[in-house]
Specification:
By secondary structure, the protein is an alpha+beta fold. The chain is built from 27 helices and 35 strands. Strands 7, 8, 9, 10, 11, 12 and 13 form a seven-stranded antiparallel beta sheet that branches. Strands 24, 25, 26, 27, 28, 29 and 30 form a seven-stranded mixed beta sheet that branches. Strands 1, 2, 3, 4, 5 and 6 form a six-stranded mixed beta sheet that branches. The model is unreliable at 759-764, 803-823 and 946-950 (pLDDT under 50).
Length: 950
Amino acid sequence: MSISANNDAFRQLIEWLPTAIAVHRDGRVLYANPAMVRMLGGNSSEQFVGRSLGEFVHPACHADLRERLRVVNVERRMSPAAEIDLVRLDGERITVESQGTPVDFDGLPAVCSIARDVSAERRAREASERMSNRAARFAQLGQQLASVKSEKEAASRILDAARELVGWDSAWLHLFEPESETMRNVVTFDSDASGVHEVPAPAARLRSPSETTRRTMREGPQLILRSADANMNPSEDTTFGARRISLSLMYAPIRTQDRLLGVVSLHKYAADAYSHADLADLHALASHGAGALARVLQALAHERAAHRLQYAIDATEGGLWEWDIQKDLIKVSARWEALLGHAPGEVPVTFTSTYSREIVHPDDWAAVEKSAADHMAGLTPFNFATFRMRTKSGEYRWFSGRSSVVEWDFLNQPTQMLGTIFDIHDRKIAEAALQESEQRYRALIEWSPEAFCVHEAGTILYCNPAFVEIVAAKSPDEVIGRSLMDFIHPDSRQVVIERMQRVAQGEERIPLAEMRGVRLDGRELYVETQAAVIWFDGKRVSQVVARDITARKQVEAERAALEHQLRESQKLQAIGTLAGGIAHDFNNVLAIILGNTDLALRDPRTSDNARESLGEVRKAALRARDVVQQILSFSRRQPLERKPIALAPLIEESVKLIRATLPAHIELSVEISPTQERVLADATQIVQILLNLCTNARQAIGDVRGHITIRLENVVAIPNASANSSAAGVCISVIDTGPGIDQATQARLFEPFFTTKPVNEGTGLGLSVVHGIVEAHEGTITVESSPGAGATFRVFLPTIPETADTAQSIRQDSQPSRLITRPGGPRVIYVDDDEAMVLLMRVGLTMRGYDVLALTDPVNALERIRTAPAKYAALITDYNMPTLSGLELAKQVHESAPDMPIFVLSGFIDERLQTLSGTAGIRGLFQKGRGESELMESLQTIIAPREHRS
């Protein structure tokens, strides 16, 4: 065939054809008619001429295109018609039926391709195939689900069908638990190169539904398509146990007509792997499997209910019977037979009500028959009766029976009744004996000094002489028949009403309570009462025991005034206990900070800059340690370390710290008398007094310009000094130019938690701490102030005769002690459950020349010492450990190795620990953060390291 681009007849014929035609040579387009241009989404033929044919053929069809061109170009014959996918200019993928034939175009060989769009036909064919496959698979799934026995088997069948229909890389099916609003994992699958495998359920099988799961339950099926670089939440979009993030996800609810059962979810790791058609298939699949799941769940629920019913019957030890009313046949359980003394199988498998009448006592049958008839007539909610039945031995025993109708016919006539019987023979005998003893009981009550009365719904039926006396009556006749409320004060009547309601609701014992009463002569009294339910003259009534406590209440009222004063004094003690507990825990932390700082300072490799910084850290830790000691001392949990000291150097040192904490608008001045007496005091607590008073002054001044003065001077006499204090003393004054304090506030200044600051700006503990410290030093604190005139706080401390200078002792903590750096000495064991303390003490002891075995388990340490006690020269242990306390460890080690020195470290050492340590063979108790140096000195005295051996 020979055609020319310039041939008008050719152009007219080709361009008016509805069939798409393109001519191409060597893979390049030479001509495209209007139908082909429209098919590929173009506007003119020029958009395609000269372009590669491969640009418009989908990559998946390139190989087939090359083969078809080879047939036309090489073999010069027409290629057979076949479907091929093209890509339009707008990117849409279409399917065409194409056929090529060899032609001469402008005198040269070329290929003419004719194409027809069959995309709609292909989609219809694929949809038909999908529907056919889905119908077949759904039918197969229905057959499979009809025989499943468990929810997991049903879930697995549903996911298998989903894998065949739409495919998945991972999948799960969860059931919804409406009571807890959680999802319960039934089965989860994941896949890799080796195939599909089940993912084990996590330990917590119940978990809250994710947001996507909630949306699925609320709105219906969900399709989620993500790009590979999208921001994703793995917990939301990843199956637990899966190895990769899911990019394509589908969720569908599993729902019957009236119930949401759960959610099924399919995941693929590739992007854009699911379509809305796939989502529709999953939704249909979930709906198809919902019925089977509901059936399985209902069967399991019935099975569990049957187990619970049987367990309840077994637990009650009651005999079970079932009566087919229309056939008049009764079946009984083995327990029913046993209650009547029969072995299993001795009673006929079924019997009629005639046999029941024969074994029920003749005197009781009428009541049994009437109770059953009333219930079957709908007059009572259940059938209940007590009666006697004849046992195998011929003896009659008492039983209680309870039953109810459980089935009716279409005429609403009862057809089946279920019931139980319980042996109450012993109880009935006991009740009879109790009734026989009623007269003896009445005699005891009549002579009792306690006031008794018996009432029914508030009407007094009986009272003993003591009750007659307590209400000022002349005889029981004045009381019996009256309302109990006649003897109750109006303020207490609601309490009595509530107690009577509790009895009406079945409560057998009403506990002791106090209330106000009224005598017949009008006088009021206080009574203490309690009540119990008893049987009286064949009726269930309330017995009240009353005791006149009017005299006791008067004594209590007088004592209450004294207790108020005691509670005020206990406020400081209560806050002290709270603060002491916090300080005790913080002390352990400070021990680790100080110890590691000392080790770093001793290390020759530490640079000068680092040493300067570490020095500041150590100073701050020492100040914090001192504050902890103040809190422990204030709470009476830590003994005071009072030593003779001169206050002037201590105040000058403290001022440096105080001045650094003051803002620029507040000036600080210090006035110290030239000569100063010494006082017996704890240096750190004196510093705490200054810090708290100056902090209080700074907060009082606020943001305005002000001045704080610290003054130290001798005084001839201390105001309000205790009997144990000397008359002379020193006075520390803190004077501020703040707004002053009124008299009402001054009266409460030293109460714990009292503060004039706004919420969250102060605790009200500062001045109460100062008050506690001053009292512990046998001193006095006063305040002088008035509104607008500032405030002056004066602390008076008693002086002592001249002693050695102690200022140097206060500064001894500023540098770490000398180390012995030669290791390999005596072997010691250190035990502490805190790993940081273990590391610290191991390094410290090793640097001092000891061979250290550091352990965190006291039980392990005990076993090692018991196995080879001679290997260890000493034991050092923490006191507070969870599995075995330091005291318990010391006792057991002392029993195994009496000569081994034992030392105990603790964040808090009280009198009890000091007392008990003597019975455990402990050589020394040392406080963490403060006593490590003394521990090393004691250890060195008893067990010298290698450097000190001769």
